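Postdoc handover notes: sequence design on the structure in folder B. Input tokens:
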């Protein structure tokens, strides 16, 4: 009996020692795992925060760039509007002083210089407004005895000029006649739905221009009449769909 009791006691001690050993290992593992888990979490959290911060930085830069470009666009638009107003005022003063025919050679030269300078700086919408205004004033029509307009547009930058209309009937047609576009730059210009009569496009740059549904009256591609229109003009990719 004493031997059996001693054996049980020894077994219990071993069991307790083994249990304590597992407990110690568990505590050690926990003690090691917690800092590791905290470290891993901290790393991932820091990385995630860095990613979010970078995304926010990129977004802020994008917003800042958009605002900068918007400010530039507004500034450019204001500048162009100021150029347009100044140009129209200067031409108006010349007409007041020298009459609607600008009966002074120097005045015509000044008007031409101011016109070329303004057209080069303006956007297509304002360029189109200038050309419409000059046409209505009769300044770019070839009505002088020598066939020259009062205000020559030669070499003028009329890129993306838009004189087109949304014609619904014959009554709505807009007519441009005797306009001298000789040697002008009319790349990507639009003359859709117009009636063009005896206009000169000699040696003009008309690449990608659009004459769709345009009535071309008295207009010729070679010197077959008094009005030489498209002779020597560059017409690469120009469109004449339904033009007649």
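Designed sequence:
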């Amino acid at each position: 009996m004493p031997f059996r009791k001693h054996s049980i006691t020894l077994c219990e001690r071993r069991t307790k020692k083994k249990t304590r050993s597992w407990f110690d290992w568990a505590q050690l593992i926990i003690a090691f795992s917690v800092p590791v888990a905290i470290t891993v979490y901290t790393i991932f959290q820091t990385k995630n925060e860095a990613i979010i911060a970078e995304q926010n930085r990129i977004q802020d830069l994008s917003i800042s760039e958009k605002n900068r470009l918007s400010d530039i666009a507004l500034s450019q638009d204001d500048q162009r509007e100021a150029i347009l107003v100044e140009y129209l005022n200067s031409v108006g003063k010349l007409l007041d002083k020298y009459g609607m025919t600008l009966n002074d050679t120097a005045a015509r030269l000044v008007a031409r210089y101011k016109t070329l300078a303004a057209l080069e700086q303006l956007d297509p919408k304002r360029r189109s407004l200038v050309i419409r205004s000059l046409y209505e004033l009769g300044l770019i029509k070839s009505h002088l005895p020598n066939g020259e307009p009062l205000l020559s547009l030669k070499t003028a930058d009329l890129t993306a000029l838009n004189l087109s209309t949304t014609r619904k009937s014959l009554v709505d047609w807009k007519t441009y006649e005797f306009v001298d576009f000789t040697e002008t730059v009319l790349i990507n210009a639009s003359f859709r739905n117009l009636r063009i009569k005896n206009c000169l496009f000699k040696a003009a740059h008309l690449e990608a221009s659009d004459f769709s549904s345009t009535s071309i009256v008295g207009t010729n591609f070679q010197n077959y009449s008094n009005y030489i229109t498209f002779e020597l003009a560059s017409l690469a990719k120009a469109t004449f769909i339904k033009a007649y």
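Context for whoever picks this up: The chain has two domains: 1-78, 123-244. Don't rerun without checking with the PI first.
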